[in-house]
Design brief:
Helix content: 10-25%
Structural class: alpha+beta
Oligomer: single chain
Shape: flat
Largest sheet: 10 strands, mixed
Distance between the termini: 56 Å
């Protein structure tokens, strides 16, 4: 199988075995099943492979020959899955679709997954949702009239990754507390926004795929950005202490995250609407929920000089 066929087969097999695909990339998939996340990466010479973590199990997909030759070079907590074993999974699914059930030995997924009969702890459902726009095209035209005099209006949905975190915060005196929550990251710009209430979100089924903007931040990089964001958290608490009558001393406690305590997991993707507008004087992007300006680019205007009734363009940088 060529690389494209391998990734298609991988997604089909995982979906058949009740995995939920979270992020698709050219050479890897991030998926989840029963609360555990898995990063499955297709191996090529020179491809860096990072170790797995308790929150994310790493699986390397490679030909059996490559696995035999190089398995001693990979970290011990990276699981190895052969392309040939993947092909056997595909064959078994195809036979089962015809009512033929193979009696061959177990494949990699059979060995990886726990006993199907046991009870499992379910994590929160993976989010794949969008927020309905509030600003319609007429309102967007009114807003753009004040700036660029827009003439082309496109509704787009920007992907935002959701991460759930739990981290211990401590102060200099050793007092500690646990902080938990969500952070949302724009998968195009890398900016973080305030999380929305899930009651405001709608399932993403039925959305026009042509309106979805592709993420520009690699999922590995996004995870690192999210970790850094949580580890930058800082909480201050004032504690008033009366020293003498009429005098008051204020002690401030500062709580900072303990890096080793951080647990971070990918929750899903939410698509937030924007108006992408082209106009006579430039282009702007407007938040289609709040009506706020997200970004703007203005064209360099040419000055027209009236001289004895003759109009001529003034020289611009880079002109003759």
């Amino acid at each position: 199988m060529n690389p494209s066929e391998i990734m298609k087969a991988l997604e089909m097999v995982l979906t058949e075995r009740d995995f939920q695909i979270l992020v698709r990339e050219n050479d890897s998939l991030l998926c989840t099943r029963d609360g555990q996340q898995y990063r499955i990466q297709r191996f090529e010479e020179g491809t860096p492979v990072t170790e797995g973590t308790p929150q994310e199990i790493r699986i390397l997909l490679a030909p059996e020959k490559t696995i035999e030759e190089k398995k001693g070079l990979f970290a011990g907590n990276i699981l190895l899955w052969s392309v040939e074993d993947l092909e056997r999974e595909v064959g078994r699914i195809a036979l089962a679709a015809q009512g033929i059930y193979s009696g061959t030995s177990s494949t990699f997924l059979d060995r990886l997954l726990p006993d199907e009969g046991g009870a499992r702890v379910k994590s929160e459902p993976v989010v794949s949702a969008f927020l309905s726009p509030v600003i319609d095209e007429g309102m967007a035209k009114t807003i753009s009239e004040e700036t660029i005099k827009g003439f082309n209006f496109e509704m787009e949905y920007i992907p935002h990754y959701i991460y759930v975190y739990s981290v211990v915060m401590t102060d200099e005196g050793g007092e500690s507390r646990r902080k938990e929550g969500e952070i949302w990251m724009n998968a195009v710009s890398g900016d973080f926004i305030e999380p929305l209430q899930e009651s405001e979100l709608l399932p993403s089924e039925g959305m026009e795929t042509k309106q979805l903007v592709e993420p520009e931040i690699d999922s590995d990089d996004a995870l690192e950005h999210a970790k850094k964001r949580v580890l930058e958290f800082r909480e201050e608490e004032k504690e008033a202490i009366t020293e003498v009558p009429g005098a008051l001393a204020i002690n401030r406690k500062t709580f900072l995250p303990v890096e080793d305590s951080l647990v971070l997991s990918f929750r899903g993707t939410v698509y937030l609407p924007v108006w992408s507008i082209e106009g006579i004087h430039g282009s702007i992007i407007i938040d289609a929920v709040k009506g706020e300006l997200v970004s703007e680019i203005f064209f360099e205007e040419q000055e027209i000089i009236e001289d004895d009734g003759t109009a001529e363009e003034s020289s611009l940088p880079g002109g003759d």
